[in-house]
DNA sequence: GTTATATGCATAAGTATTTTATGCATATAT
DNA sequence: ATATATGCATAAAATACTTATGCATATAAC
């Protein structure tokens, strides 16, 4: 991701969430979808995405299905059962993180 | 930080925000404050904190004041003028990140 | 009295995740 | 003919963190 340091660590969660909502997606599609949904604010780099997808596949969270469209290769990924459970965990962790960080940042602690 | 991968990248912002609210703090105090404010959920490790404080000082965002209390060393850090501005930037970036990631995670994009 | 816990700072080695820089290939627009 | 879009991939470097130490004083527990 070529934006802020803050996005570090959230790539996996983003991928899983997108696959959870869209049944199956291929790598390039994920980069374009994220860019569109964030109004260009978040750009996933290929150097981060592909190794991440391979890792998720190796961990048994994703299944792959290779197809050819317009003479070009596509690798569709979709969640396994294990992947669906992990998506739920990751989303809960993200919500907890946001809640915690919001609490830290939205108050003036010198008054406490 | 010994918790989630999600916290990666937010340590600097947390430090700056705490110093912004508390005028001056020392390292150990920061670790305890964060632990208390997050009900033990977020634990900043010393291996992450001290190098980060040194870096912020080197960048001119923090000033240091060494004192001795009860025969023990303390290094109080406080924001410089530059540090105060950077705090504002970092907080804005954090809010933007939260907004973006929330949008990505709280919707069902397959319906769009 | 000595052992654990708390206070306080520091650094080095290892790990994980990302950016940056490439590489290859096809299709389409200029 | 050249640039841009589509599509996957990996390797080197940078970054930020965890884990493991090290040193030192004070206090509580046993």
Can you walk me through this structure?
- Chain A is of the alpha+beta class and 112 residues long.
- Chain A has a single domain, classed as Orthogonal Bundle (Arc Repressor Mutant, subunit A).
- The first copy, chain A, is built from 4 helices and 3 strands; from the N terminus they run αβααββα.
- Chain A has helices at 11-22, 27-37, 46-58, 81-105, and strands at 25-26, 62-69, 72-79.
- In chain A, strands 1-3-2 form a 3-stranded antiparallel beta sheet.
- In chain A, strand 2 (62-69) and strand 3 form a beta hairpin.
- In chain A, helix 1 crosses helix 4.
- The longest helix of chain A has 25 residues, at 81-105.
- Chain A is globular, with a radius of gyration of 16 Å.
- The mean pLDDT of chain A is 92.
- Chain A binds a DNA duplex (30 and 30 nucleotides) through helix 2, helix 3 and strand 3.
């Amino acid at each position: 991701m070529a934006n802020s340091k803050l996005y570090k660590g959230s790539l996996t969660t983003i991928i899983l969430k997108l696959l959870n909502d869209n049944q199956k997606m291929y790598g390039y599609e994920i980069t374009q979808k994220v860019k569109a949904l964030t109004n260009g604010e978040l750009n996933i780099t290929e150097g981060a995405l592909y190794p991440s997808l391979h890792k998720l596949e190796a961990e048994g969270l994703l299944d792959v299905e290779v197809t050819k469209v317009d003479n070009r290769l596509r690798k569709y990924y979709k969640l396994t059962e294990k992947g669906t459970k992990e998506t739920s965990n990751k989303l809960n962790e993200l919500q907890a993180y946001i809640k915690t960080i919001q609490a830290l940042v939205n108050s003036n602690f010198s008054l406490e």
